[in-house]
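From the shared-data thread, chain only:
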Amino acid sequence: MKDSGKFIVLEGPDGSGKTTQIAKIEDYLRERGIDFVSTREPGGVQVAEKIRSVILDVENDMSGLTECLLYAAARREHLIQKVIPALNEGKVVICDRYVMSSLSYQGYGRRLGEVVLEVNKRAIDVEGKQYWADMNIYLDVTPEIGLQRIHAKHADREINRLDLESNDFHHRVRDGYLKLEQEYAEQFKKIDASQNEDAVFADIKEVIDNLLLSNRV
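Structure, as tokens:
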């Protein structure tokens, strides 16, 4: 009998190093023979990837609520088409961003408040069940460090609409994450992402081991 699927999300401000760490997680799980799916938001399935291109295009201007609704629409289709089937097959799902990103970026960054939570509760409700992450691994870094990393490595990473927001916006986003960490404490593990890559991964590995490997024989 297969183990129950687990839904693990990497969260963090821009430049926190999620992409680098997800690659390390993939290698780690593969080495241990753990069946997993690695994906991202917005994206992961065709329609969500198309929505992603609209949201992040630097030439597109839109209101905060429009942005919120587009993220939620992409999230729902990604959840239905990819995440839920994988979880039902007993797989581990590793996802780059999920609901907490919307609560931080649109709820706090865009100052939309509770409407973001209400929209996302609808988006992640499938046949009467709300699909929350089993664990949000939150990579914490200041906007100053994160944005410096982005622009230093711009050739390896897309520069999107959100990267170009003001420092005040990025500070609101980080403050939002820190508040959500307290509010959803049972779903969060905070990691100091200002450390070097190997140190960050060592902390992530400990979280993953506690969540996945302790129940395996």
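The chain has one domain: 6-215.
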